[in-house]
């Protein structure tokens, strides 16, 4: 069979080779009907891209200063314009975004979707006026955001699972893996009655992966016939409910998202870590006294920029046919709220 080239397809389709090249990369400047027709011809003729040429052209495009890539919108839905700055996790995400944008030639433009008296149509117009092609949506864990945009115009990545609808490409902390890591480390430190307690809203926003990991780890480490410590999921950190749960199940360690447990447990007469160990799966380097898992938010921010850049370089805009998830695994932080490792394990 003769080698099929872009020129072969162009001759068959009666268009230029440049049009064929852009159509096969789904470039929006080529009409959808033309793109579909060219894809069909390429498939029928058995065209296959040369991976070495594809890699070279991708490198050339990335090295070229494209105006399309000048501005990347970072959208948040906090109640206040600067609300994201009040949370260490989002501040660290933004640091990772800024650092990677500087490396790749983007300018991160932080936009507040909840601006009073700003319609979604006007918000979309602002994005177009600023030449935005890439969008990152920051998480705010206290709600699931509903954002109305002409998605087909943008390459979009959300961080964590708090956008509904639609299902977009996503970068997320590894909720399942981080919970497993916390359980494993607490077990190494001698804990044998490990509990899970956190605010209810974390459960759906982690895709139920935290409780799933905890239940599975309990089965693996404690045995299927061992007494279970039921996870404590509460709407708020009610001291009386936490006290009743601790008295009922007598955990010697708690895995949680919620830092205030370090203040509540002493109120119940439980010393941390002498009486009970505490592993927070949202640790931050600014608070080295906390033990648990650092989700590496800066890496998540950088990965979100990479995922947007990948879509732009491939001319992929709008809803993906198959959404991609990039999970960033956290790392254990020793801190001061877990008893030191037994000497045999150190």
Structure, briefly:
With 346 residues, this protein is of the alpha/beta class. It has helices at 6-13, 17-24, 32-45, 51-63, 88-104, 120-129, 175-188, 202-205, 209-222, 239-249, 261-267, 297-313, and strands spanning 71-76, 107-112, 134-137, 155-159, 169-173, 194-199, 232-234, 253-256, 277-280, 292-294, 325-328, 331-333. The protein has three domains: 6-49, 434 Repressor (Amino-terminal Domain) (Orthogonal Bundle), CATH 1.10.260; 67-173 and 298-315, 3-Layer(aba) Sandwich (Rossmann fold), CATH 3.40.50; 175-294 and 332-345, Rossmann fold.
Give the SSE layout:
Blueprint: H1 6-13, H2 17-24, H3 32-45, H4 51-63, E1 71-76, H5 88-104, E2 107-112, H6 120-129, E3 134-137, E4 155-159, E5 169-173, H7 175-188, E6 194-199, H8 202-205, H9 209-222, E7 232-234, H10 239-249, E8 253-256, H11 261-267, E9 277-280, E10 292-294, H12 297-313, E11 325-328, E12 331-333
Parallel strand pairs: 1-2, 1-3, 3-4, 4-5, 5-11, 6-7, 6-8, 8-9
Antiparallel strand pairs: 10-12
Helix pairs in contact: 1-2, 1-3, 2-3, 5-12, 7-9
CATH superfamily of the largest domain: Response regulator
Strand percentage:
15-25%
Low-confidence runs: 64-69
Alpha carbon gyration radius? 25 Å
Strand order of the largest sheet: 2-1-3-4-5-11
Count the beta strands: 12
H/E element order: HHHHEHEHEEEHEHHEHEHEEHEE
Give the proportion of residues in helices.
Answer: 25-40%
For the residues shown, what is the average pLDDT? 88
By CATH reckoning, the class of the largest domain would read: Alpha Beta
Task: Please work out how many helical segments DSSP would assign.
Answer: 12
For the sheet with most strands, the description reads:
6 strands, parallel
Shape estimate: elongated
Q: Which structural class fits the helix and strand makeup?
A: alpha/beta
CATH topology of the largest domain: Rossmann fold
What is the CATH architecture descriptor of the largest domain?
Answer: 3-Layer(aba) Sandwich
First and last CA, distance:
64 Å
Domain count: the total is: 3
């Amino acid at each position: 069979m003769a080698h099929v080239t872009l020129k072969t397809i162009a001759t068959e389709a009666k268009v230029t080779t440049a049009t064929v090249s852009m159509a096969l990369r789904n470039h929006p400047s080529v009409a959808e009907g033309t793109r579909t027709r060219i894809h069909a011809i390429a498939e029928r003729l058995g065209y296959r891209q040369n991976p070495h040429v594809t890699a070279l052209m991708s490198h050339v495009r990335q090295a070229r200063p494209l105006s399309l890539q000048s501005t990347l919108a970072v959208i948040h839905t906090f109640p206040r314009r600067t609300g994201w700055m009040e949370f260490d996790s989002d501040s660290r995400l933004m640091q990772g975004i800024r650092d990677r944008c500087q490396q790749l030639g983007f300018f991160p433009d932080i936009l507040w979707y909840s601006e009073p008296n700003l319609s979604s149509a006007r918000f979309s117009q602002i994005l177009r006026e600023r030449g935005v092609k890439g969008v990152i949506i920051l998480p705010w864990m206290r709600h699931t955001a509903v954002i109305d945009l002409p998605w087909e115009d943008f390459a979009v990545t959300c961080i964590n699972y708090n956008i509904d609808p639609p299902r977009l490409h996503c970068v997320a902390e590894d909720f399942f893996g981080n919970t497993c890591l916390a359980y494993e480390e607490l077990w190494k430190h001698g804990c044998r009655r490990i509990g899970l307690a956190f605010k209810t809203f974390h459960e759906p926003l982690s895709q139920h992966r935290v409780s799933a990991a905890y239940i599975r780890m309990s089965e693996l480490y404690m045995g299927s016939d061992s007494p279970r410590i039921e996870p404590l999921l509460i709407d708020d950190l009610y001291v009386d409910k936490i006290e009743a749960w601790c008295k009922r199940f007598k955990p010697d360690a708690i895995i949680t998202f919620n830092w205030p447990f370090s203040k509540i447990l002493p109120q119940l007469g439980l010393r941390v870590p002498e009486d009970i160990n505490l592993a927070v799966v949202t640790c931050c380097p600014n608070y080295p006294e906390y033990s648990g898992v650092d989700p590496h938010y800066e890496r998540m921010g950088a990965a979100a920029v990479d995922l947007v850049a990948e879509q732009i370089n491939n001319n992929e805009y709008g809803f993906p046919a198959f959404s991609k998830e990039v999970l960033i695994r956290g790392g254990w932080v020793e801190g001061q709220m877990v008893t030191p490792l037994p000497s045999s394990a150190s």
